[in-house]
Design brief:
This protein has 501 residues and is an alpha+beta fold. The protein has 15 helices and 16 strands.
């Protein structure tokens, strides 16, 4: 499902140092005492989250005047100022503007209807410096969240979702191939991908170097194999090492007056479907080995075991002790949270906590929430994300994950695709233990550094799907450039019919 839409201007519907510092320090449940702490980052974050931007800017001004301020704290403070700018871009509508957007689909909208949906929290808003502002995607999200609003649409066109979010012949292909071969990596697809970034004309002064990072997959046995780089524009490029967990192709070129700066890469890759035939009776708690330890426990700020998280877990899990059954219960509980278009992740201080309380969540938010709950219950969980596509013209950004079940090892999960509705229990449970072969992973972790490193703040501090752009004068945010992704299925090489696992 589409995550980001405020700056999705292309047809296909982010240096990590400062970003990692920011997200290490931030917590959505920062203690109240932080608001009275000495001037510094810990006193600014709660003000930003509370929408008191005037006070936050005053505190930042005061803190930046301190002679003993470290470079890291200075950058973190500067990012808070940038975060406020991004929040204002996300929350771009006043009430009149939000109503006008809803009226595009409900021409005879009544003020009382809007007020009732608003009071029910179905139109995401925030009070910033005393003014109520609505999220730019709140009007379209309303129709995802409210059956009543959907029924009022004058033109009830279906939502654009992946064909694989419903029962599909490929699901049965993956299951049957795994059963026939005894392998977990099956039903491969060979695909040629072209990804591009086009920077707006005059976004950078003429003659200055524009630097771009475009996402690129790693070779992962049994998941991505036989990656072949075809070409790039400009021709000169730098592919990050295979070990880079958020891997990119780096490109640069001088800006020309009045002309967009265009970057693109083309490559081929074989992607395998995944299927694990799990017997719950064989699943035992995973031993916290050194290899698994990093995937257990908290990882502030986005994986934090808050009191509310513990309570949600208790209600979902009950007295269950079997790790697989626990995972099933948590998967179902998170799957019940309705999907809606997301705020930019760089503006959220604790994503899993946001997903728990917002009343809706997108794929990355749902995945981080499920990861938090699994880890809270002693089940290792890790992140993966990239881009999904289909046999049709559909493609989109997407986030998912993996959980560790002994003795099976790492098992895939996609809580956003969730439980299918075929009536067949095995097919319906596909996305807890199986994957389709129509997804390319660019990220095997989140908030990881680039190679070569970015010098300025990232536009996306958590994920990497659209790419990143900067120049000597600073980062170029998503409103200054377009991105695109095109996938074309190719004939399979003769040696790719079965995976390596």
């Amino acid at each position: 499902m589409s995550r980001h839409g405020v700056f999705a201007r292309s047809g296909s519907v982010a240096q990590a140092t400062a970003a990692v510092l920011f997200f290490t320090l931030c917590s959505i449940e920062a203690p109240l005492a932080a608001t009275t702490a000495p001037s510094g980052i810990s006193s600014v974050i709660p003000l930003v989250d509370a929408g008191d931007f005037r006070a936050a800017n005053r505190r930042i001004d005061q803190a930046l005047q301190q002679s003993n301020l470290s470079d890291a704290d200075r950058r973190a403070l500067e990012f808070e100022r940038e975060r406020m700018r991004r929040i204002l871009l996300d929350f771009s509508l006043d009430e009149a503007g939000a109503k006008e957007r809803v009226r595009r689909q409900i021409p005879d909208l009544k003020d009382s209807e809007f007020a009732a949906w608003d009071a029910a929290g179905l139109l995401e808003s925030r009070v910033i410096d005393g003014q109520k502002r609505y999220f730019g995607r709140a009007p379209s999200n309303l129709f995802r969240l409210s059956a009543e609003a959907r029924a009022r649409r004058s033109n009830p066109t279906p939502f654009t979702d992946s064909p694989l979010e419903a029962p599909h012949a490929h699901h049965r292909e993956v299951i049957d191939s795994a059963r026939a071969t005894g392998k977990t990596s099956v039903a491969p697809r060979r695909v040629r991908v072209t990804q591009s970034i086009t920077v707006d004309a005059d976004a950078v002064p003429a003659g200055e170097t524009v630097r771009a990072w475009i996402p690129y997959p790693r070779a992962i046995p049994g998941q991505h194999e036989d990656i072949r780089f075809i070409e790039s524009s400009p021709l000169r490029h730098q592919i990050a090492p295979e070990s880079t967990l958020q891997r990119t192709v780096y490109l640069e070129q001088p800006a020309a007056a009045g002309k967009p700066a265009a970057f693109s890469i083309t490559y081929e890759v074989t992607i395998y479907g995944q299927h694990y035939q799990i017997d719950p009776a064989k699943v035992v708690p995973a031993a916290p080995t050194p290899e698994l330890k990093q995937f257990l426990g908290e990882r502030p700020p986005h994986i934090v075991f808050t009191d509310a998280m513990r309570q949600f877990s208790r209600e979902a899990v009950g007295d269950e002790k079997n790790p697989y059954r626990i995972a099933q219960k948590l998967f179902t509980a998170v799957d019940r949270i309705p999907w809606a278009g997301a705020l930019e992740y760089s503006t959220i201080t604790n994503i899993s906590n946001y997903a728990l309380h917002a009343g809706h969540a997108d794929c990355g938010q749902q995945t981080l929430l499920l990861m938090t709950l699994l880890r809270l219950n002693g089940i290792p969980a890790r992140w993966q994300s990239g881009w999904i596509f289909a046999d049709t013209s559909y493609n989109n950004m997407h986030d998912w994950g993996w959980l560790y079940l002994a003795p099976y090892g790492w098992v895939p999960m996609d809580v956003t695709f969730g439980k299918l509705s075929s009536g067949n229990a095995e097919l319906d449970a596909f996305y807890l233990g199986s994957f389709d072969a129509y997804r390319i992973a660019f990220n095997d972790d989140y908030s990881q550094p680039f190679v070569p490193p970015k010098q300025h703040f990232r536009s996306e501090t958590v994920d990497l799907q659209r790419g990143e752009v900067e120049w000597r004068g600073g980062n170029l945010y998503f409103d200054r450039w377009d991105y695109d992704f095109k996938a074309t299925l190719l004939p399979l090489p003769a040696n790719s019919q079965e995976g390596s696992q």
